[in-house]
Amino acid sequence: SIMKVFITRRIPQEGMKILSQAGVCKVSLWDSDETVPRAELLKGVAGAHGLLCLLSDKIDTEVLDAAGPNLKVISTLSVGFDHMAMDEIKKRGVRVGYTPDVLTDATAELTVALLLATARRLPEGVVEVKNGGWSTWKPLWLCGYGLSGSTVGVIGLGRIGMAIARRLKPFGVKRLLYSGRTAKSYAAEVEGEYVPLDTLVSESDFVVVSCALTPETQGLCNKDFFIKMKNTAVFINTSRGAVVNQEDLYQALSSGQIACAGLDVTTPEPLPTDHPLLTLNNCVVLPHIGSATYSTRGIMAELSANNLLAGLQGTDMPSELKF
Ligand code: GLV
Ligand code: GLV
C-alpha cells in the first residue's frame, strides 16, 4: 500500500522530483517558505510513514506521538540534529537521515566570508559609503584585524572545522590550534595543534566555533570564556547559537573585552530586530545561511529525499545517522 509522507516546508524541486518519480509515497507538504505552525505540523504528521523536516522544526515527543506507530523514518534537511529528541526517536525504532558532507564546502566558505567581513569591518564600510561617512582616505579609519601571521583556534575540528582550517591556512596563518574531545590524526594536513580549550581561547587571534550543539557544548562560550580571550581577538560562530551565552557575548563586545564577533547562528532564530547584539558595530549577524548556495541546497534536497525513500523501503540510506 502507498505510504504517507509529510514535508514541513517547500524544498528545492530536485528533492520533490525524486519523491514523485519513486512512486512509493503520497506526499503532503506545508506549501510555504515560512515555518509550519505547530498545529499544522501535528496534523500533517498524523499517520505518516515518513517525515522530511528542517532544523527549525522541533521534533519532540509530541510530534512523534502525533505521527503514531506508522512512522519509519525522519529525514532532516540539515547536518545538525539538535532539534530532534534522539532518545525518543531511538525508543520508537525510527531511522534518521541527515545531510553531512554535501554542505561542508559551502559552510566552510561562508565561515571564511563571515570571518573576513567581521575582522575587516566590511558591513561598517558599506554603510559609511552609503551614508556619506566616507570623507577621504584616512590612515586610522576602519582598521581591523588580518589573518597573516595570526593564530587561529577552531573549536570542533570535524568535517566543517577541518574544511575551514584548510581554507584559512593559505592566508598566512602561523598557528592553527584546535580543541575537542579527541586529537585528530587528519589535523596534520593543516599542522593543527591539539590543545586544551583554555589554551586555544587565550592564545588565538581568531576563535572559530564549529562544534555540534550537545549538552557539553551548550553555553560553552560564556563569561569565563570571553574573559580569557585577547582584547584584539575575533569570535566567529557558524555552528549553533546555543553554544554561546549571548548576554555574556554582548558584555564582552560592548566592554571591549574582545574585538568583534561574527555569528551565522543565534538564539533564538530569527534574532529579534531589537536584540542588543544588533546595536553593536562590532557584531556581524547573518541569518543562518552557512549552506545556502543554490547547488548545495539542491544536493541537500536530493540527499534528504533519497534518505527518506530508503527509510520507507527499509534499504540502506545514503546518509543514515547512527545514534
Ligand atoms: C545547518 O545548520 C545544518 O545543520 O545543516
Ligand atoms: C592603498 O590603496 C595604497 O595605495 O596604499
Strand content: 15-25%
Shape: elongated
| Attached small molecules | glyoxylic acid
Contiguous runs where pLDDT drops below 50 for at least 5 residues: none
CATH superfamily of the largest domain: NAD(P)-binding Rossmann-like Domain
Number of strands: 12
What oligomeric assembly is this protein in? single chain
Adjacency order of strands in the biggest sheet: 8-7-6-9-10-11-12
The whole-number mean of residue pLDDT values reads 98
- Structure classification: alpha/beta
Second rung of CATH, namely the architecture of the largest domain: 3-Layer(aba) Sandwich
CATH classification, class level of the largest domain: Alpha Beta
Q: Helical stretch count?
A: 11
What's the structural domain tally?
A: 2
Helix content: 25-40%
Main beta sheet: 7 strands, parallel
Q: How many angstroms does the end-to-end distance come to?
A: 29 Å
CA radius of gyration: 21 Å
Order of helices and strands: EHEHEHEHEHHEHEEHEHEHEEH
Q: Could you name the CATH topology of the largest domain? A: Rossmann fold
Q: Layout of SSEs?
A:
Elements (H helix, E strand, L loop, with lengths): L2 E5 L5 H10 L2 E5 L8 H8 L4 E4 L7 H7 L5 E4 L9 H6 L3 E3 L6 H16 L2 H10 L19 E5 L3 H10 L6 E5 L12 E3 L2 H7 L2 E4 L13 H6 L5 E4 L8 H9 L5 E4 L19 E3 L8 H20 L10
Descriptive overview:
With 323 residues, this protein is an alpha/beta fold. 34% of the residues lie in helices and 15% in strands. The longest helix has 20 residues. It starts with a strand and ends in a 10-residue tail after the last helix. The relative contact order is 0.15. The structure holds glyoxylic acid (GLV) (2 copies).
